[in-house]
Amino acid sequence: MEIFDKQNNNDTLFAELVLPVPIPKLFTYRVPAAWNDKVKTGQRTIVPFGQRKILTGVIAKLHHQPPTEYEAKYLLELLDETEIITPLQFQLYYWMAEYYMCTVGEVMNAALPAGLKLSSESMVQLHPGFQLEDSAFDFSEKERLVLHQLKSESLPYSDVAKLLDVKSIYSILKSLASKESIILFEKVKEKYHPKTEKRIRLQSAFLGKKKLESLFETLATKPKQEAVLLKYLQEVPVFHDPDLNEKGIGRSGLLVDDISESSLHTLVKNKILEEFEIVVPRFGFEENTVDHPLLLSEKQEEARNKILESFEKHDAALLHGITSSGKTEIYIDLIRRALEGGSQVLYLLPEIALTTQIVHRLKKIFGASMGVYHSKFSDNERVEVWNGVLTGKFRFVVGVRSSVFLPFDNLALLIVDEEHDPSYKQQDPAPRYHARDVARMMALPSLISAASNKQ
User: Fold this and answer.
1) Which among 58, 71, 215, 219 is least surrounded, fewest beta carbons within 10 Å?
2) Where are the chain's structural domains?
3) CA-based end-to-end distance of the chain
4) Taking the CA of residue 383 as centre, how many other CA atoms within 13 Å lie in the half-sphere pointing to its CB?
5) How far apart are CA 210 and CA 72, in angstroms?
6) How far is CA 87 from CA 83, 158, 217, 328, in A?
7) What is the pTM of this model?
8) Which pLDDT tens digit goes with each residue over 400-426?
9) Nearest-5° angle of CA 22, CA 24, CA 28?
10) Which among 90, 81, 87, 85 has a CA at the least distance from the CA of 39?
11) How far is it, in rounded angstroms, from Cα 429 to Cα 111?
């Protein structure tokens, strides 16, 4: 990570960005002076591109040299507080761009999960200088309806269509724009949203035994509210362990067995119960793993030992074995060794091989430290795995070919199962890469670094 020297923050700072466009260059933008102390390489940022477009770019370099061919525009917004792309990833991007004859922007576009890219929504707002009563133009009934609604708020195109109950609104918007009564613009929004859960807990003022007894006396004439409180204490036994109250219970888990939702609302309103929201993972992986003893056969131990001996002299080893020959047990043993050493592990599988069966098996052993990265997962799920690798939550990932783009920085073991499988090849669009070959380069960061230094 690069943080620019604060002694220079009185000077104008420029950022060179990787943009998701098929143009073989970085693009230089001016950093607002107020951001000099918080801008870093690896952050996403929103920038204007051309006359109308707004793009999401990633900061690759920071310096004080203005571009000579054009006047640099300003960064519009920083989307991250810290890096989401590591220096090692940038090196890999440069190598892939050179080796697969494409641009760094195309590599980055393929690398980032869709949830980390921005989407835009076309919006309509009233022109700041427009006054209907002063306008010399004539307006139709539908145009007046739109203008009236825009007095209180800006509207997305879809809402304008609903307001007018028409499928096509472009002729109306074009007419309003020509009469200088509206402005059309793009509202940029981030796709990723964390999954949240509403939970309920007892207000701390009622945690004492005497206070609870007094509370039940108060609720004696309100059986439905009393039933809600009894249900809560049944599920969260605060008498035995008051610390359980901090976590509380999921709202949906409390509203069972004919528990009244309106009574729950009343208890929250009267500050007897408290409703709060937490961010929860989208993966139901156990925090506590089941420690299954792994007993390797004599042949499996022999193969494992040969692999370990090979790693002392070489960076890669090739394991031959037909289906159901016991390769997975050897992989699990090697993964455990790497994780116990504090390192990261990537286990690549062909698309067809990433089945529920093998994920369930690995999950039982590695639990919450394991992430799964698959094209059939939602955008939000893939972003959570990406962020989990960045933060160290997921030190072991099992995934398909796109997993090579995850932000690893301490990768000690990389397994490419069924490396001959054609699904490791990306055909379209660029970069047209082979995950096995990219994995080979990931295992040799010194080679990646040498290639990136040519940029």
Assistant:
1) 71
2) 6-83, 118-190, 206-279, 298-452
3) 18
4) 14
5) 68
6) 9, 41, 63, 32
7) 0.68
8) 999 999 999 888 899 999 888 899 999
9) 105
10) 81
11) 12
Q: Which CATH class is domain 118-190?
A: mainly alpha
Match 């939702």 to its residue by tokens: 261
Report residue 186 as tokens.
């793009």
Q: Within the chain, how many helices (H) and strands (E) appear?
A: 16, 15
What whole-number distance in Å separates Cα of residue 250 and Cα of residue 200?
A: 6
For residues 81 and 87, is the Cβ–Cβ distance under 8 A? no
Binning pLDDT at 50, 70 and 90, where does residue 120 land?
A: low
Nearest to 150 by CA among 136, 163, 135: 163
- Per DSSP (E only), the strands in 134-262 are 155-156, 182-190, 196-202, 249-250
Enter the DSSP assignment of 382.
Answer: H
Cβ burial 386-412 (10 Å sphere, 16+ → b, else e) = bbbbbeeebbbbbbbbbbbbbbbeebb
Q: Residues 124-134: pLDDT tens digits?
A: 889 888 888 88
Report the mean per-residue pLDDT for the chain: 84
Measured CA to CA, the distance from residue 81 to residue 78 in angstroms comes to 8
Q: Provide CB contacts within 8 A for 386, sequence distance 6+.
A: 84, 113, 116, 406, 407
Token pair for 451: 């290639």
CATH topology of domain 298-452: Rossmann fold (3.40.50)
Q: Distance (Å, rounded) from C-alpha 183 to C-alpha 201? A: 47
Q: What does the CA dihedral 352, 396, 44, 78 come to, rounded to 10 degrees? A: 140
* pLDDT bracket for residue 445 (50, 70, 90): low
Per-residue pLDDT of 17-76, as tens digits, reads 999 889 999 999 999 999 999 999 999 998 888 776 778 899 999 999 999 888 899 998
Cβ neighbours, 10 Å, residue 185: 15
Strand arrangement of the beta sheet that strand 344-348 belongs to: 370-373, 396-399, 344-348, 411-416
